[in-house]
């Protein structure tokens, strides 16, 4: 019995379980209530269940399931048949070190804010699946990103529940002497210490640096408090711990990365630490820079100039003073590395410029974003034409096994090996699809939608109950009334993402009359589910949330427009599996890639999106719908009007009629054909296995794609 219990604990200590349906199911079956209450956290769940109970319950079938899953887990860890061993054996030797300010691996590990983190999480999982020797580096945020709730007005409120190491599958890293491994970095005149933790993600390891230790003065302890929290000063401090601290950590572990991959510019100070090392080894300045360049690659994610991290010269001077004197680097040389104009180092220090200057290759995250980035940074490469600017692209994907759900998983297992098999090639997906009848696909859709509706009703109950405000009791009653129940018969639209204003969340409310006619059309009704957080400093984003919440309270929209609080990975998984249409209406070309729409495909969801990010590459006229044809207006209002008009007219004339058109067996055959097209064309391409293989072959093993 002890063996079964320790197998269970073993499973809880590696996030591999988070993309294995059976492993997840075991934890849930132990106690559905505790599972739900503890944010699907196995470590926390097991803290609540006694060994007596476990011993008793593991006697029978549950024990067998645990041992089976555990043995699959062991096979996974020890497999000698990985993609990397076969096709990229170099990458099974020295590790890829992947630096990211956030990792979204599972909702129970709150060290992420949004899409960038989810991408990093999906990247590390695929790297593990593919057998690449892979290390992630990030910070351990004691408070994570905030938990969102709404006040009576619909205004976003934030609270910051603490997360404790004991409740997470992390352990302290110890040095060769057996003591806790602590590294230090210089910030201004101080030495700031960071304890290292590690988190196992399949075969990969994620290291987390933590300044919240007694050795630090209290204001430095807070560096690892919140994801993207605080002011510019906090930001630069976090980035020093991440970049310089991360590089030092790898050094003290004796790890010699094959390549350093900077996921966005936040970690770019790591290049300074590498530079200091090369200089200390006796290289001249130019040689040292060349040597650092050879070791680093960089992925940029931000097509908007204002979105890039920039620090003032004064702040750089103040913060790096001691570091520079210790490493013998010159302040003007440092400023030069981060200045947009090499003739003027008096301006701002830009992290993206540092990253581009000190990496051997760089990429954007979709074809369109690659083009935008080349244009945006052309001035850094004097004499080069736009198309010669050395920034390529690798389009983002999603980790299919993570974005499946129990039901979708078992559905596809009837027709092919597993969910992952659907992503291997277009042929593989088409072969499986050929075995599925329209009736089966339609029943999949209905089941997933019913699951989502049930989830939302439970969630809303909770959400309104917690607010417990007398002035909202009408809303509460309205939501619970029979006539306002969400229905799986109704075309359901999902919109969920960070509430950055360029994503224009309230766009569909531009014309309330018209929306009312669409939503309440008795023959072809529609319902919309929203979710998303605005950054705590972003009042314009919060105002968008308030607008939507207030619209959702209008009598004509009650029960048909829902805002779910506290968007996170768990809510995302529910939404992408249940909705019919995933709506995305950013201002083109500001969405570097976007990934949420890719998550819906294997569940039979369809995308309806502006031709931005990944969508122009994927959209072929048959596998979803586009909002416009990529038109760009100089005038914002004109753009908004145009895009909103497109949304309404495509809904009215194409999406709704196609959904409600049924054959004699009540099956929407044209709709299902779209689903088939979407699965065949999108699933095999827009996944992180393809994406990480591209990084491996174009960036990790060689000089770079461009
Ligand atoms: C996928 C995901 C995102 C990214 O969504 P985009 O629409 O690509 O911006 C953000 N947050 C969560 C929780 C996600 O799961």
Automatic annotation (TrEMBL):
- Substrates-to-products reaction catalysed: [(1->4)-alpha-D-glucosyl](n) + phosphate = [(1->4)-alpha-D-glucosyl](n-1) + alpha-D-glucose 1-phosphate
Q: Point out residues bearing the modification N6-(pyridoxal phosphate)lysine.
A: 599
Signal sequence span is none
Q: Taking every annotated instance into account, which residue ranges of this chain make up the domain DUF3417?
A: 3-108
Give GO terms for biological process: carbohydrate metabolic process
Write down the SUPFAM superfamilies for this protein, in alphabetical order.
UDP-Glycosyltransferase/glycogen phosphorylase (SSF53756)
InterPro entries, alphabetized: Agluc_phsphrylas (IPR011834), Glyco_trans_35 (IPR000811), Glycogen/Maltodextrin_Phosph (IPR052182), Glycogen_phosphorylase_DUF3417 (IPR024517)
Instruction: Give the GO molecular function terms.
Output: glycogen phosphorylase activity; pyridoxal phosphate binding
The UniProt keyword set, sorted, is:
Allosteric enzyme, Pyridoxal phosphate
Coiled-coil intervals, chain numbering: none
Q: Does the keyword Phosphoprotein apply?
A: no
Q: Name one Pfam family in it.
A: DUF3417
Q: Which domain of life is it from?
A: Bacteria
Which family, according to UniProt?
Belongs to the glycogen phosphorylase family.
Q: What is this protein called?
A: Alpha-glucan family phosphorylase
Q: What is the lineage of its organism?
A: Bacteria, Pseudomonadati, Chlorobiota, Chlorobiia, Chlorobiales
